[in-house]
Amino acid sequence: MAKIIILTGDAAETLEVFYPYQRLQEAGYEVHIAAPEKKKLQFVVHDFVDGFDTYTEKLGHTWDADIAFRDVDPADYVAAVVPGGRAPEYIRNDEDAKRIVRHFMEAGAPVAALCHGPLLLAAAGTLHGRTSSAYPALAVDVELGGGVFENGGAVVDGNLVTGRAWPDNGPWIGAFLEVLARQAALTPA
């Protein structure tokens, strides 16, 4: 069974972790969650409230990480997913998280990133010349990372599939599954 790695940590958006985790399992992949340490992670729930200029944050579900970033051999996986929430703000400083992302991006392997997820891609130096969506307030971060920001729910640039936030989960993962299918068709059995 082909394996996919999700790169995340504490304060990741619950819906942005669990939707791809469960949807990719349903599609027949073995999915592992990697984090700075192999431990129980605390996810959060972001919501949009009338009158607020940005989202609010509440505690969400907890879930065990399967593996620490330092122990990940990216060659064991066919693709990577980087959910949003606040986790990408600090995992982008982890050298192993950047190493893992670089592996997939340089190999042209499928990568899905949502919301704040492109912060890790920018920190890894992999957005240069690439078109990426993200949470709209991060347009400047995508551009400072050398990318071109597109405000869309399922932006596909070759192997890279990005979206704005959890309301884009369906189109975002739908487009990612199409990229995975194309990649599988090109890979010798």
From TrEMBL:
Residue ranges that the Swiss-Prot or TrEMBL entry lists as coiled coil: none
Stretches assigned to the DJ-1/PfpI domain: 3-177
CDD domains linked: GATase1_PfpI_1 (cd03169)
Organism: Protaetiibacter intestinalis
Family to which this protein belongs: Belongs to the peptidase C56 family.
InterPro entries: C56_PfpI-like, Class_I_gatase-like, DJ-1/PfpI
Protein name: DJ-1/PfpI family protein
SUPFAM superfamilies referenced in this protein's UniProt entry, alphabetically: Class I glutamine amidotransferase-like (SSF52317)
Pfam families noted in UniProt: DJ-1_PfpI (PF01965)
PANTHER family attached to this UniProt entry: DJ-1 PROTEIN, DJ-1_THIJ_PFPI FAMILY PROTEIN
Taxonomic lineage from the root: Bacteria, Bacillati, Actinomycetota, Actinomycetes, Micrococcales
